[in-house]
Each structure stands twice: as C-alpha cells, then as structure tokens.
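During the reporting period the student researcher (J.K.) took over the structure-prediction task from the postdoctoral fellow and processed the backlog of single-chain submissions. One of the processed entries is reproduced below for the supervisory committee.
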Amino acid sequence: KETTWDRITGPKLFKTVTNWSGIHSVPLVPLRILTGLLMIHHGSEGGVGPANFGTPEFQGFIDYIIKPYFSFLPGSPEFWSAIHDYAEFYGGICFALGFLTRP
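J.K. obtained the following structure tokens:
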C-alpha cells in the first residue's frame, strides 16, 4: 500500500534494495564495476598509477583543492594529495572486485 511518505519520497525505483537473492543482485554488479573503474581513473589522475608526482594534474589538485579547502591539515599538501590518490585508486580496485561490499 502506498503511503503519504511514499508519495513524498518518489517512486519505488529509488528505494533501497531489500531482496539480494537471485536476479535482483545482477544490476548491481555492472554498477559496482563501473564505479570502481571511475574511481581508479580519478585516483590515477589519468596516469599509470596513483600519485603521479610532478604532473600538471597532481599539482593542479594541490593548488585548486588541497591548498584552498584543506590547508588546515597538518603536513605538506603533497602528502594529503598522495593519500587521496592512493585511497581512491586502491579503494576503486577493491570496490570493483567487490571487497567489503554487501552481497
């Protein structure tokens, strides 16, 4: 039965999946893999691996993201930029492979 809350929050398409068995988990696999691949690409900044020191992309991330918005962090901006790149690169690999994801 549709409630007032259902009418406010939108169609069932945007609801949380509650049945993970059988065919219901199939659409989640390509979404997980594509999201992981996008994270890998973003973490590598278009290079071969994470934290490509000295590249314009790495320096741009430091100049336009780390310094203006995260200057309160202790340590050098290069360190935090590298931490971000490594976390996004290796986290994307783990996410694409399904490590620590729900069934």
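The committee noted the following: The chain has a mean pLDDT of 82.
J.K. will present the remaining backlog at the next meeting.
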